[in-house]
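Internal tracking record. Fields below are filled automatically when a chain is submitted to the structure queue. Please do not edit lines marked as system-generated. If the sequence contains nonstandard residues, flag them in the REMARKS field before resubmitting.
Queue: standard
Priority: normal
Entity type: single polypeptide chain
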Amino acid sequence: MQNIEDREATILKYVPLVEKVVRHIGLSNPDYEKSDLVNIGVIGLMDAIDKYDEDKKVPFENYAFIRIKGTIIDEIRRNGPVSRTGMNKLKDYRLAVESLQHSLKRIPTEEEICRELQITAKQLGQVYDTASYLATQSLEKMIFNDEGNGVELGDMLVDTHAISVEEELLKNEQMEALKGAIGRLKEREQLILQLYYVEKLPLKEIAFILEVSVPRVSQIHGKMILKLKEEMRREELD
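SYSTEM-GENERATED OUTPUT FOLLOWS
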C-alpha cells in the first residue's frame, strides 16, 4: 500500500492516461464536459492504483486503462445518456415552439424562440446538440414520439418506395408524412441526412465536406431533427 504522498504522485503521473481514455471513448454528449469525464476517470484511476496486483504481470497502464474506461462508461450509463436537465430543456423548447406557432400562425424564428425561453443563442445551440445526440441513439424514437413504429430514415432515403403493401397503414402514412417533411428541409440539411444516415459518415467528415466546424454540423443536425419532429406532430394533429 502506497503512502499518501506516493499515491498522489502516482495519480498525477497517470492523469494524461485518463485524458487519453476520454479521447478514446470519444463521447459526443453536450451534457458532459471533458473535465467531467476526466474527473470520473480519475476515480477509476485511484481504484486501479488500489487494486493493482504486480504479481499478475500485467502492465499497470494496461490495467488502469481498462479500469478508467469502465468507470467512465458505468457512470454515464448510471446517469443516463442525457441529463434530466438536458431533457427538460428539450421539452421546454418543444412547448415554446408549439406556443409560438399557435400565437404567430407561422414557424417561429430562432430569435423568437430564444426570447420565449429567455435563453441565449448559445444555449439554444446546446438544445440542438442534445437533440442531435438523442437522434444518433434512436432516430425513430426521436421523431415519432417514442412510439417505435419503425420508419427507418436511412432506408427511406435510399429507396422512397421501400415499404411493401403488406406493411401497416400507419407506417405508410408515416412514410409519406416524413418524405414531405424532408422535402421541406433546406438543401444543406438534406445533404447532412444523406451523408450521415445513408453514407454513414461521421460528423467530423461531414464537417470537412461542408467546410464548417464539427459543433456546427451537430447543431444543424439537431435543429433539423427537431424540425422533422415538429412537422410529424403537426401531421398527427391535422
